[in-house]
Amino acid sequence: MPSSSHPDRRAFLQGALCTVAGLTLVGGCSPDAPYDDATLMQPTLLPTLGPTRVREIGQAYRRATPAESTAPTLRAAIARGAQQLRGLRWSPYPSLEALITADFTDGRVVFPAGWMLSVNEARQCGLFSLQG
After folding, report:
1. pLDDT (tens digit, 9 = 90+) per residue, 14-36?
2. Exposure pattern of 56-88 as b/e (b: 16+ CB <10 Å)?
3. CB 44: neighbour CB atoms within 10 A?
4. Bridge partners of 45?
5. Does residue 68 contact residue 74 with C-beta atoms inside 8 Å?
6. What is the distance between the alpha carbons of residues 4 and 13, in angstroms, rounded to a whole number?
7. For residue 100, what are the β-bridge partners?
8. How far apart are CA 109 and CA 112, in angstroms?
9. How many helices (H) and strands (E) does the chain have?
10. Chain-wide mean pLDDT for the chain?
11. Overall average pLDDT of the 96-104 stretch
């Protein structure tokens, strides 16, 4: 006989099934775009380098990488990188800082306008440079 302080097997299995279903549902509802536009359009370099320099870096990156020269292609490239770093579908997306750190760790760097940046930093600068 099960004691009142321990769940029986049926209660345990029901709880486990609800947990798995909940995690699957949350992961299945994750947006394709892991970061909102406002976040992407504000590179972390902006306060340090200023808008003029960040815009120059973004323009240089877009010129050097024509396949990522529009806002949709830049956003999609950042999202792909986040998805790869994320791994499992139900795990959370990494922060932009974690994405940038992973770029440096894995040697994904570029040199737009003479600056060494992670690819995703440069992509953010590219998005910033497209603002009016």
Report:
1. 655 555 444 433 444 444 568 88
2. bbbbbbbeebeebbeeebbbebbbebbeebbee
3. 13
4. none
5. yes
6. 17
7. none
8. 10
9. 6, 2
10. 83
11. 95
Q: Measuring CA to CA, which residue among 119, 126, 3, 127 is closest to residue 57?
A: 126
Report the distance separating Cα 20 and Cα 39, nearest Å.
31
Residue 99 in tokens: 């994405």
Predicted local confidence at residue 9, as pLDDT: 64
What global pTM score does this model have? 0.73
Neighbours of 41 (CB within 10 A): 16
Place of tokens 């009016």: 132
Question: What's residue 42's pLDDT?
Answer: 92
Cα–Cα distance measured from residue 109 to residue 91, given in angstroms and rounded to the nearest whole number: 26
- The domain segmentation of the chain, as residue ranges, is 31-129
pLDDT computed for residue 20 by the predictor: 45
| Torsion over CA: 111, 100, 132, 48 (sign) | negative
∠ CA(19), CA(21), CA(23), 5° rounding? 70
Q: Cα(2)–Cα(98) distance, rounded to whole angstroms? A: 47
pLDDT in tens, 28-68: 444 456 888 889 989 999 999 999 999 999 999 999 999 99
